[in-house]
């Protein structure tokens, strides 16, 4: 009886592992060369949306990792989004608040390194299946922007379309 249960459980787990998995979350971070983010460095992120994901709402975040020496309380980005089948990205300027008015960082910190996950769009829809490309460009007055270690994109499931 124990052997039959073990074999049945093993087959069930194997069958479950073979099913295609819908996207629950996407997260990728890119290192900023020498921790100085120059205008010319524009990291991009390719996100593939499956047909079944077009009925889902997603929250979109920007991840930022910097040292305590980062000289500003915010960061401005130009975020380009290229939709499947389009050749020209749509661009949007976004402010990422990183500290309060007293200079206390919002993110989590260990020693002199701080990480932020900043929500930039809530309950977004991807109406078309395919590959979406997101490109980040720093849009501050200082070039290069010092003490920025990583920049990243996180997209997570936020529920089903109403």
What does this structure look like?
With 162 residues, the chain is mainly beta. β5 and β6 form a beta hairpin. The protein has a single domain (23-160), classed as Sandwich (Jelly Rolls), CATH 2.60.120. The protein is built from 1 helix and 11 strands; from the N terminus they run αβββββββββββ.
Number of domains: 1
The low-pLDDT segments are: 1-22
The first-to-last residue Cα distance is 47 Å
Q: Could you estimate the helical fraction of the residues in percent?
A: 10-25%
Shape: globular
Proper CATH architecture: Sandwich
Total helical segments: 1
Strand order of the largest sheet: 1-11-4-8-7
Do you know the CATH topology? Jelly Rolls
H and E order: HEEEEEEEEEEE
Radius of gyration: 20 Å
CATH class: Mainly Beta
Strand tally? 11
Q: Strand percentage, roughly? A: over 45%
Structural class: mainly beta
Q: What characterizes the major β-sheet?
A: 5 strands, antiparallel
The averaged pLDDT comes out at 88
């Amino acid at each position: 009886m124990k052997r039959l249960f073990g074999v049945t459980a093993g087959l069930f787990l194997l069958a479950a592992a073979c099913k295609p998995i819908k996207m629950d979350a996407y997260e990728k971070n890119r290192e900023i060369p020498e921790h100085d983010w120059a205008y010319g460095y524009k990291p991009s992120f390719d996100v593939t949306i499956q047909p079944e994901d077009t009925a889902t709402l997603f929250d979109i975040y920007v991840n930022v990792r910097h040292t305590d020496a980062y000289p500003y309380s915010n960061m401005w980005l130009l975020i380009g989004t290229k939709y499947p089948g389009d050749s020209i990205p749509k661009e949007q300027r976004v402010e990422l608040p990183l500290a309060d008015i007293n200079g206390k960082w919002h993110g989590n910190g260990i020693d002199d390194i701080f990480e932020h996950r900043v929500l930039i769009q809530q309950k977004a829809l991807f109406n078309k299946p395919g590959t979406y490309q997101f490109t980040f460009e720093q849009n501050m007055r200082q070039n290069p922007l010092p003490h920025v270690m990583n920049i990243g994109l996180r997209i997570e499931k936020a529920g089903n379309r109403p």
